[in-house]
Specification:
It contains 7 helices and 2 strands. It is mainly alpha-helical. It is elongated, with a radius of gyration of 21 Å.
C-alpha cells in the first residue's frame, strides 16, 4: 500500500486524491462544489471534511480569504468584542422572535418577552434579515 495513503471509512485514500480535495477546499469551494468537480456524492465530501475538523464553507465562507485576513492582524492588538452576549438560539426562540418581529413589535419588547439582552435580539434580527428570513418594516427595530 502507498505509504502516503490515508485510511478513509475502511478504504485507502491516496495522497493525490486527498490533496485534490484539500486544494479545492482551500480555494473556497463548499461540499457541493467539491463533490460536483470530483464526481462524488456530497456526503462523501461532508464526511471527509468533518473527519479533518474542517469547518463548512458557505456562500460567503471562503477559507483562504479568511485565513489571509487573519494573518495580517497582529494578535497582541486584537480585542474580542461582545463576549458577554449569548449568540446561541434554539429554533423555538427564533420562531418566537420572528413572529413578534412580523407582528411589528419593538425590538426591546421582543427582548423583554424572551428574557434576552436587547443586543442579542438585535443580532438575531440582523442574522435573519441577512439570510432573507425577515421582511422589511416601515419603522425598522422600533416596530409599528
Amino acid at each position: 500500500m502507498n505509504k502516503t495513503a490515508v485510511k478513509e471509512s475502511g478504504r485507502w485514500l491516496t495522497s493525490k486524491k486527498e490533496n485534490e480535495r484539500l486544494k479545492l477546499y482551500e480555494r473556497g469551494l463548499n461540499d457541493a462544489e467539491i463533490s460536483e468537480k470530483l464526481g462524488l456524492h456530497v456526503s462523501t465530501i461532508w464526511s471527509w471534511r468533518n473527519r479533518r475538523n474542517l469547518p463548512p464553507l458557505g456562500r460567503a465562507g471562503r477559507v483562504a480569504d479568511t485565513l489571509d485576513k487573519m494573518k495580517l492582524r497582529p494578535q497582541s492588538e486584537l480585542t474580542i468584542i461582545l463576549e458577554d452576549l449569548d449568540f446561541s438560539w434554539v429554533q423555538e426562540e427564533i420562531t418566537t422572535a420572528k413572529q413578534m418581529w412580523d407582528e411589528g413589535k419593538h425590538i426591546a419588547t421582543i427582548a423583554r418577552h424572551m428574557q434576552r439582552d436587547q443586543d442579542e435580539v438585535a443580532l438575531l434580527i440582523m442574522h435573519l434579515k441577512r439570510k432573507g428570513r425577515l421582511k422589511n418594516r416601515t419603522n425598522g427595530v422600533f416596530g409599528e
